[in-house]
C-alpha cells in the first residue's frame, strides 16, 4: 500500500491512494480524527462483510469510538472503547462472534494498535445489550490471565 500526501494551501492536504484521493482539511478534521475514523470504519466493514458471507444481513450499524489520549506529546492512544449497535437476523452469540472476529483477527487497524492501546467494546444487538465493556482477549500490552488449569502445575 502506498499513499502520497501533498500540501495544497494553508492547513489543507490531499491524500492520494492507489485507488482514489481525499482532502485532509485541518483543523476542520484533524489527522487523528481521520485515524480514529479509519479504525472504526475498518471494524464496521468486517461487521457487515462477515455476516454477508454467512448468509446474514446487518442493518442499522453504528459504531462509536472513544479514545483516552496522553495529556502531553506524544498524545498516543492509551485506551479505546468501541460501542457497536446493529440489528441482524442472527442470534446474539453469532452477532458477538462477528464483532470479536473483527477485533481479534480481521481488522488491520485495530491489530496495528492493540499492543499499545487497551481496547474494550460493548455490543447492542437488536436493541439488547449483549456485551458491556468487554476487554479484547489479547492486546493492550498485557498478558491474558486464563486462570489455573486442572492438572497443570505452573
Give structural notes:
- The protein has a domain at 30-135: K homology (KH) domain (GMP Synthetase, Chain A, domain 3, 2-Layer Sandwich), CATH 3.30.300.
- The chain is 29% helix and 36% strand.
- The chain has 3 helices and 7 strands, in the order βββαββααββ.
Write a short abstract of this structure:
This protein has 154 residues and is of the alpha+beta class. The chain has helices at residues 31-53, 92-106, 108-113; strands at 4-9, 12-16, 21-25, 58-69, 77-88, 118-125, 128-135. The chain has a domain at 30-135: GMP Synthetase, Chain A, domain 3, CATH 3.30.300.20.
Summarize the SSE layout with pairings.
Blueprint: E1 4-9, E2 12-16, E3 21-25, H1 31-53, E4 58-69, E5 77-88, H2 92-106, H3 108-113, E6 118-125, E7 128-135
Parallel strand pairs: 5-6
Antiparallel strand pairs: 1-2, 2-3, 4-5, 6-7
Q: C-alpha Rg, in Å? A: 18 Å
Q: What number is the mean pLDDT?
A: 90
What low-confidence regions span 5 or more consecutive residues with pLDDT below 50? 140-154
CATH architectural name of one domain: 2-Layer Sandwich
Tags for this model:
GMP Synthetase, Chain A, domain 3, 3 helices, 29% helix, alpha+beta, 154 residues, 4-stranded mixed sheet
Amino acid at each position: 500500500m502506498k499513499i502520497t500526501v501533498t500540501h495544497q494551501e494553508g492547513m489543507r492536504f490531499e491524500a492520494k491512494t492507489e485507488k482514489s484521493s481525499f482532502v485532509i482539511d485541518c483543523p476542520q478534521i484533524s489527522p487523528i480524527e481521520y485515524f480514529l475514523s479509519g479504525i472504526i470504519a475498518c471494524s464496521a466493514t468486517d461487521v457487515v462483510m462477515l455476516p454477508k458471507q454467512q448468509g446474514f444481513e446487518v442493518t442499522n450499524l453504528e459504531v462509536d469510538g472513544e479514545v483516552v489520549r496522553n495529556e502531553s506529546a506524544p498524545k498516543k492512544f492509551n485506551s479505546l472503547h468501541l460501542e457497536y449497535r446493529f440489528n441482524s437476523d442472527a442470534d446474539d452469540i453469532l452477532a458477538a462472534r462477528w464483532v470479536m472476529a473483527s477485533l481479534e483477527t480481521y481488522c488491520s487497524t485495530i491489530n496495528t494498535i492493540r499492543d499499545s492501546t487497551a481496547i474494550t467494546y460493548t455490543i447492542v444487538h437488536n436493541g439488547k445489550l449483549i456485551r458491556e465493556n468487554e476487554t479484547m482477549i489479547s492486546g493492550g500490552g498485557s498478558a491474558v490471565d486464563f486462570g489455573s488449569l486442572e492438572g497443570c502445575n505452573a
